[in-house]
Design goal:
The protein is about 35% helix and about 20% strand. Helix 13 links the parallel strand 12 (about 295-300) and strand 13 (about 330-335). A nine-stranded mixed β-sheet has the order 13-12-14-15-23-22-21-18-19, sandwiched between helices. A seven-stranded parallel β-sheet has the order 5-2-6-1-7-10-11, with helices on both faces. It has two domains: about 5-285, 3-Layer(aba) Sandwich (Rossmann fold), CATH 3.40.50.300; about 290-530, Rossmann fold (3-Layer(aba) Sandwich), CATH 3.40.50.880. By secondary structure, it is an alpha/beta fold. The chain contains 19 helices and 23 strands. About 50% of the residues are buried. The protein binds glutamine (GLN). The site of glutamine has 11 residues, from helix 16 and strand 19.
Length: about 525
């Protein structure tokens, strides 16, 4: 990075106060979307203060989906929002975790890299955070950094200090600090209460950061005097205090931000006064609001029933495909642990998403069996491919066919761990992760759906199809329709004598975009439309 470029590069820091989980990630992504719509080259990064080295071993029920990047980083679901909003492909450098930085620092200390100095949170960890920010920013005009959690959290202090120090590195004029606060409405007295937000802004100032812009999140629209009050107590100019109530859909937020005072803040900050071209978002909102003549019902055979975040990329991919196919979408959650044939029968198509561990697997195998027996449209994603292969092998007469993940001793181990992976079943970072090439067989449904035969998809799994059972799998109704270029790994299977039964060892949902749905999801919706 030459110094000319460095001095011109701008940084936007998005922090949160009062509560987390009120849309800091969506706000950060939407600010990026508005800048892109003004023609600015944007990059984005999430900093998470927890001590995990990556998100791979986090429980999805608590933490939501683990989003995998092209280079195989297992990250927080916010990176999925960023990819969908900004149509970027992110990498490990866009996900910065305390645990990752600290483990590197400790390794460097052991390797004697500090020349006898005392290794400290300030300046060593804060310096490492700033280096990580500059690394992720490389090549963009404006780099957005979202800091996870809320300001004042014990574990996040190093990040807050690092972004304060960062202004000295690149110049305060090149940094924009945006604080997202929540203002509750008290039903009994019918008023919006700004006190927690005032306290949150005081906290931020206490750490040496006076924000340039405050986004005030409320459930329902708040009156203008709420902005006035927050401005008065925080010293942030009133036109930079932006009221943002809950939007009907997250994809509306770029429009709301562009229509709000943030647009002026961004214009002043970047010097780019282009009017944002939001046509892409207009189309998405239109598709979302449309009353459709036909609605398809897709059954999501799920293990985690109480948290939409666990399957967020799958849900978004289905929605995007339905918009393109001009149909309404009704998602029916089918509990994999209690699923019965009536559940599978009551929908127009089935999706069996990825998963780890045995819970719910018999129901997922039944879903695949039902789809094969009754020609119900089916899309299998990762585990959804593995259960389809198990179902096909069982249909061919191998009653105890299974994945060794669920039955370690079955002689009919149609899904298994390949050599080299054995013994590493419960540790982090030992999966097949990130982008892998695949070759699709000519004339297959997947080749038709993609329109090409060389594809790249993202992976996150440990088990593979055992090709010594190809004949049994074929006899049970499934054909292999795509493999790794060397033919060793099965990447796609499908039922040729079926309207649409397609499964992939990959996670195509991660590549879907709201305005560019993934072809395998489009294929499912098209088939479900005919049911
Ligand atoms: N548990 C399976 C495996 O590790 C599938 C993983 C997934 O669906 N992401 O291979």
């Amino acid at each position: 990075m030459d110094s000319e470029k460095k001095s011109k590069q701008k940084f936007i820091f998005v922090t949160g106060g009062v509560l987390s989980g009120v849309g800091k990630g969506i706000s950060a992504a939407s600010i990026g979307a508005v800048l892109q719509a003004k023609g600015v080259n944007v990059s984005i990064q999430k900093c998470d203060p927890y001590l995990n080295v990556d998100a791979g071993l986090l429980n999805p029920a608590e933490h939501g989906e683990c989003f995998v990047t092209i280079d195989g980083a297992e990250t927080d679901l916010d990176l999925g929002h960023y990819e969908r909003f900004l149509d970027l492909e992110l990498t490990q450098k866009n996900a910065t975790l305390s645990g990752r930085l600290l483990s590197q620092l400790i390794m460097d200390e052991r390797a004697g890299k500090f020349g006898g100095k005392t290794v400290q949170l300030v300046p060593h960890l804060t310096g490492a955070i700033q280096d990580a920010i500059q690394l992720a920013a490389d090549g963009s005009d404006v780099h957005i950094v979202e800091i996870g959690g809320t300001v004042g959290d014990y574990e996040g202090l190093s990040f807050v200090e690092a972004i304060r120090e960062f202004a000295a590195r690149v110049g305060r004029e090149n940094c924009l600090y945006v604080h997202v606060v929540y203002v509750p409405f008290i039903g009994t007295s019918k008023e919006f209460k700004t006190k927690p937000a005032q306290n949150a802004l005081n906290d931020l100032r206490g750490f040496g950061i006076v924000p340039d812009c405050v986004i005030v999140r409320t459930d329902d629209p708040a009156p203008e005097n709420v902005a006035g009050k927050i401005s008065q107590f925080s010293g942030v100019r009133e036109d930079a205090v932006i009221l943002l109530s809950n939007a009907k859909t997250v994809f509306k937020v770029p429009q709301l931000i562009a229509a709000s005072g943030i647009n002026d803040v961004l214009t002043r900050f970047t010097g780019n006064d282009n009017v944002p071209d939001l046509s892409k978002w207009d189309k998405i909102i239109e598709a979302q609001a449309k009353q459709y003549d036909k609605t398809v019902t897709v059954g999501l055979v799920a293990k985690y029933m109480d948290n939409e975040d666990t399957y967020i990329s799958v849900l978004e991919a289905l929605k995007a495909a339905a918009w393109q196919e001009d149909v309404g979408l009704d998602i029916k959650w089918i509990n994999a642990e209690t699923a019965a044939d009536e559940d599978f029968n009551s929908v127009d198509g089935l999706v069996v998403p990825g998963g780890f561990g045995e819970r719910g697997v018999p129901g997922k195998i039944n879903a695949a069996m039902y789809a094969l027996d009754h020609k119900k449209p089916y899309l299998g994603l990762c585990l959804g491919l593995q259960v389809a292969v198990v179902a096909a092998a069982r249909r061919s007469g191998l009653a105890d066919a299974n994945s060794t993940e669920f039955d370690a001793n079955t002689p009919n181990n149609v899904v298994y761990i390949m050599e080299g992976q054995q013994g590493k079943e419960s540790t982090g970072g030992t999966l097949r992760l990130g982008n892998y090439d695949a070759k699709l067989y000519d004339g297959t449904k997947v080749a038709e759906a993609y329109g090409v035969t060389d594809v790249v998809e993202r992976h996150r799994h440990r088990y593979e199809v055992n090709q010594s059972f190809t004949e049994a799998i074929n006899n049970g109704g499934l054909q292999i329709s795509g493999t790794s270029p060397d033919g060793k790994l099965v990447e796609f299977v499908e039922a040729s004598d079926h309207p649409y039964m397609v499964a992939t060892q990959a996670h195509p949902e991660l590549k879907s975009r709201p305005n560019r749905p993934h072809p395998l999801f489009v294929g499912l919706i098209r088939a479900a439309k005919q049911v």
